[in-house]
Amino acid sequence: MAKNYVITIARGFGSGGKEIAQKIADxxxxxxxxxxxxxxxxxxxxxSEEMFLQVDEKLKGNYVKNTxxxxxxxxxxVPQSKHFESDINLFCIQSEIMKQLAKNVSCVIIGKCxxxxxxxxxxxxxxxxxxxxxxxxxxxxxKTGVSEKEAAKMxxxxxxxxxxxxxxxxxxxxxxxxxxxxxxxNSARIGRDKCADVIIEMMKxxxxxxxxxxxxxx
Length: 218
Hints:
Distance between the termini: 19 Å
Number of helices: 11
Shape: globular
Strand order of the largest sheet: 2-3-1-4-5
Number of strands: 5
Helix content: 40-55%
Low-confidence stretches: 57-65, 71-86
Radius of gyration: 17 Å
Mean pLDDT: 82
Largest sheet: 5 strands, parallel
Structural class: alpha/beta
Order of helices and strands: EHEHHHHEHEHHEHHH
Strand content: 5-15%
């Protein structure tokens, strides 16, 4: 039986990490999980998805409930109260979703401190995507139509949030620390398509023939 593998993608805002993650998923024929994790956590816990969106760095469909039904969750992540004193319990529920995904399916996970949450798993490869500020600005302006000034504000605001989120839930580690990842890539240097190719090649190197056979790669 083929083993499942997970690729986690952390990314600077505007670096194209989400696009690269989708390219990897398309090449391997696996799903991408980002906002879907919020819906899965909501369905599992019975809490409003808005609660998870508020602490997150919507897809609808039966596949969410079907996937959740296959997982065996430990009781300690079940909410014990209608009122949370902090966001930690919400993070724990999301973390358990990611762990169950890592145990059961091959996929790509974007953000969510996934590299930290899954650091003890031996079937996970973790990658960080960044790009120079100019490249990020151009990408955001082209995608959203905002001014350069507004794009710059969006980068500062979003990257600060992601850094603070990671530092809090990792117990003080920092988000851009290269030792968190198997590889850090500058998407402006070789382009997003080749970033996806490099990450897959790194997974081949890390996991060898099992990974190659699982996805029928050369």
